[in-house]
UniProtKB/TrEMBL annotation:
It comes from the Bacteria. It comes from Billgrantia aerodenitrificans. This is AAA domain-containing protein. Pfam families: AAA_5, CobS_N. Signal peptide: none annotated.
Length: 326
């Protein structure tokens, strides 16, 4: 794409052919890639329901929020759909350092013909609104209130954006799309797992047309992803090791759901554990450094029991009861 502002989707793609989904949906797409299009990750596994929700966002201009626990691949899911549609995509993390000025824009001093002049520089929201861009707000439930109210206006399908400093109203590009990811659904840190999340304005949550929930993958699919990230383990012994790792991760998730643990292993942690196995050549030591040391001391015996059940060996007692030795 030479001029992103004037670009429009110029082809249709089959959801069935692209994602293996039982659907007749034809999705608009771009025939050429742009510098803002994410790279395709062939190892990524798509959740059919969440994929359909995201495709509805691209096809029908629906505002889609993907909610789920950490490490489920929420943002990556949206990016990988965009990558296969050649749709330009921008991802903004709504951490505590993102301000209203970052989103809207601000005056800046620039050089023009050797002279310093003050010029308004557009923030990420007005820039994206004027282009066929899929804008993703990451960690949506961690955004500051002043930032969230900037976003509220563009949540409406034809929501115009007013730049007060410029006396200008921006009309959204017909192919601008808006997505968000969140660990909670705007109800705050109910589980104690996500410090910093906010209780969101219900009027704003109500403006999201679709809320899709993304859970962790089935064991076999999660193991396949870990193997794709750590190909050195793609042998009989390595596959058995990865299967045991994923089994431990699933037990921590069940323990978290039952209230026995205050933390859990995400697929990201399992990948880190497998990578650390390549460094330390010791699954138990890698487990300690990748996950066990992140756990509350009182919960380590439970986690050690999970490890013993899946690997058939005990962790070193000093690792499990380290806090008792001080």
């Amino acid at each position: 794409m030479t001029d992103l502002k004037n670009a429009r989707p110029d082809t249709l793609m089959s959801a069935r052919e692209l994602f293996g989904i039982d659907s007749e949906l034809q999705v608009p797409a771009f025939s050429q890639r742009d510098e803002y299009v994410p790279e395709v990750d062939d190892a990524y596994r798509f959740n059919p329901d969440v994929t359909l929700a995201i495709l509805a966002g691209f096809t029908r201009n629906r505002r889609v929020m993907v909610q789920g626990l950490h490490g489920t691949g929420k943002s990556t899911h949206i990016e990988q759909v965009a990558a296969r549609l050649n749709w330009p995509c921008l991802r903004v993390n709504l951490d505590g350092h993102i301000s209203r000025l970052d989103l809207v824009g601000k005056d800046a001093i620039v050089m023009r013909d050797g002279v310093q002049v003050t010029e308004f520089q557009e923030g990420i929201v007005p820039w994206s609104l004027q282009r066929p861009v899929a804008l993703i707000f990451d960690e949506y439930d961690a955004g500051r209130p002043d930032v969230m109210f900037v976003i509220q206006r563009i949540l409406e399908r034809e929501g115009h954006f007013t730049l007060l400093d410029q006396n200008r109203v921006i009309h959204p590009h017909p192919d601008f799309r808006l997505f968000a990811t969140a660990n909670t659904v705007g109800l705050g840190n109910l589980t104690g797992l996500y410090q910093g999340t906010q209780v969101l304005n219900h009027a704003q949550i109500d403006r999201w047309n679709i809320v899709a929930k993304l859970d962790y993958l089935p064991r076999d699919e999660e193991a396949a992803i870990v193997l794709s990230r750590v190909p050195a383990k793609d042998n009989e012994k390595g596959r058995q090791l990865i299967a045991s790792m994923v089994a431990v991760a699933n037990l921590t998730r069940q323990g978290f759901a039952a209230g026995d643990l205050s933390t859990l292993m995400s697929p990201r942690t399992v990948i880190t554990w497998a990578e650390n196995c390549e460094i330390f050549r010791n699954p138990a030591l890698a487990f300690r450094l990748s996950f066990l040391n992140k756990c509350d001391a009182a919960e380590r015996p439970i986690v050690a029991e999970y490890y013993q059940r899946c690997f058939g060996e005990e962790l070193e007692d000093s690792w499990v009861h380290e806090a008792d030795l001080s």
